[in-house]
Amino acid sequence: MEKISLKFITACLALLFSSAVLAGAPQWNYIEGHYMTGDTSDDDSENTYGVRGSVAFDELFHAGLSYGMGENESDSGDFDIYDIRIGVHPEINENSDLVLELFYSNVDWDDDDNVDFYGVVFGVRSLWSDVFEFMVNATLAVEDESGDDDTSDEIYFTVGGRYLFSDVISVGVTLINQNPLLDDSDNTLTFDFRWGFGDI
After folding, report:
1. 23 in a domain, yes or no?
2. Does residue 110 fall inside a structural domain?
3. What is the dihedral of CA 41, 44, 45, 47, to 10 degrees?
4. Where in the sequence is the domain holding 166, given as residue range(s)?
5. Alpha-carbon distance 58 to 90, whole Å?
6. Residue-wise DSSP of 133-191
7. Average pLDDT value for the chain
8. CATH number of the domain enclosing 43
9. Quick one: which H or E segment has residue 17?
10. How far apart are CA 3 and CA 186, in angstroms?
11. Residue with more model confidence, 145 or 165
12. What's the alpha-carbon Rg for the chain, to the nearest Å?
């Protein structure tokens, strides 16, 4: 698959605001299970299973935690991924939220390699109808590998869709280009099953 282009992201944003059918705001309180897969820069396959949760508070803010465990088909072995983030989601219109998040992620390999990532996410979530949600964002991630004095940064893009069976149950598909958390995988796909709940 070709990498996601800026033109594609721009087209998605244009559709986001021109085609939306007002259907309420996106949900920020949920827990989900997910499966992520992708091919690394060395053409190895990596697969990750995990859980993720999000909680909204004070109407504007949200925080999230996730954990994933994965495997690489090469000698790199197994790994664990931990992620924590906090953000704001101001309303753009009745069915769309602007998203700004700060995050920290850690990838812990079985061979004792440890890689930290931290950065910022900027994007949009929108309900196009009563049953379909769309999201698009850009992420700036800084990579800091243990034992290495140098850091590197990378910008990557995410697009995704979600089908809502009800106010509680939904499934989603997300595409990320050049995902640095999975050894610079080209175009990783994530499939998830989500349970949403009301305000707490």
Report:
1. yes
2. yes
3. -80
4. 6-196
5. 11
6. EEEEEEEEEEEEETT-S-EEEEEEEEEEEEEESSSSEEEEEEEESSBGGGSSBEEEEEE
7. 83
8. 2.40.160
9. helix 6-18
10. 7
11. 165
12. 17
Rounded CA-CA distance 21/128 in Å is: 5
Q: Which residue has the tokens 């088909």?
A: 73
Domain annotation covers residue 1: no
Token output for 174: 């997300």
Q: What is the largest CA-CA distance in the chain?
A: 51
Q: How many CB atoms lie within 10 A of CB 132?
A: 16
Q: Rounded to an integer, what distance in angstroms lies between the CA atom of residue 16 and that of residue 10?
A: 10
How far apart, in whole angstroms, are the C-alpha atoms of residue 193 and residue 160?
13
Residues 6+ positions from 103 with CB-CB distance below 8 Å: 83, 84, 85, 117, 118, 119, 120, 121
Structurally, the chain folds into a number of domains equal to 1
pTM: 0.80
What confidence tens digit (pLDDT) does each residue in 68-113 have? Answer: 998 877 656 788 999 999 999 999 998 999 999 999 999 888 776 7
Given a cut of 50, whether residue 18 has pLDDT beyond it is no
Q: Which of 46, 43, 62 is nearest to 54 (CA)?
A: 62
| Under 8 Å between Cβ of 157 and 178 | no
Q: Quick check: is 87 in a domain? A: yes
Confidence tier at 142 by pLDDT (50, 70, 90): very high
Report CA 38 to chain centroid distance, whole Å: 14
Q: What is the rounded CA–CA span in Å between residue 171 and residue 34? A: 10
Q: What is the mean pLDDT of residues 139-149?
A: 80
